[in-house]
Amino acid sequence: MTETLPLRAQPLLAVIDSNAVHGAIAFEGQIWEQLREHQRADRVELYFPEVVLKELTRQRSSDIQSQTKQKIKQFQKTLQELERSKATFDPIDFPKLDGLVDIHMGAEYVRGSLEEAVSEVGGSILPVPSVDPDHLAAAAISRKRPFKSGGEGAGDYLIWRTIVDLSLSRPNAEIWLVSNNYKDFSTSEKEKDKLHGDLAEDLPEGCQFKILPTLGTLSDFLNDRSDANRSKPEDYGTSQDEIAEEEPEPTQRKHVGSRNARLDTLVAKACIDFLDTDVMYQEVGDRNYEYSSGLEVIGNTYPREIQNATVSYIEGDPDTVTWQLDENFNGPTVVGTATIEGQIEFEGYMFKADLALADASSEIYVSNSDHNHHMAEVTFGSDFIAQLGLRIEGSGIPEITELMSIKLGLDS
Known about the structure:
11 strands; 12 helices; five-stranded parallel sheet; alpha/beta
């Protein structure tokens, strides 16, 4: 595996893992539109392994059915209350309604939606690879990556073999895996972009490989390459550091009323990428204990009854981003703050005795009412506003340094 710079004439091959789309079955938003533009310009080819689509189909069909059927149960309860109040209305066939949920929101519906989404972004679905049973068994027994120490990892193994097949069919290609699963694919936590040695030996000579955590990071890299090509189309050997040094420094060095549109876009991307990589999947601190560790959420809308919660979905709205630079720090570096609004969901557990709270709330959904003898699985959704630490180096590229606060319930 070589480290030479890629030929600019060749499109980058991006393989998308399931965690990069956060369970979505429709690929919409600013980042997807930017990737579509890069795909039309032959800068990138988007690939979705069949095993990823199957996993997304399984996850989303189960989630959609559970949440929809819970809504039906809440609707039934409301109708029962109306019946007790002597209201009159036409009868509803609830078994038939449950059946419609199974048909129209089941696996076929989700799979069809995913295939349509892949087509709309100009992507391709990679078939399940042919697997040598002896190779699979040897990798699992020896705990060779991407297998975990406990032997789990068959799905990741199939994703990896899909990538190997792609690399063999496209000699000397540059392949980037978009996945936040650095524990199974990467060298280490400190070198998340570098492929683990167990896997690197499977790639053919001349293949260039990198791991990116999010679609936003992929879009940023493609934007940088596009800008570099426009500014120096004749010089493919110029490094990214040299390009950054030649770019003019941003005019926004202090907090003033004027704005640089390109810098606004970069700050918005940095905010969204930070939410995807640093807030997604975080555990929420237990607000019933003063010194509990984990993500601290502000606002009275988060139910204290939810325990062991993690962030299962977060989407920032780039149009809500505001930012300011407050002071110079260490020469050309400036620091400040940024804010972004959006939607967030948490998955956690509640005691069954507290499920009446879920019935009374439109934001709490019971996804599994019988997790064990005492607990039920629930999800909770809310809008939010987050304040983030912002830093801009002399190159003009913004970086989010920390989550300063996140408040739920914008109207509370």
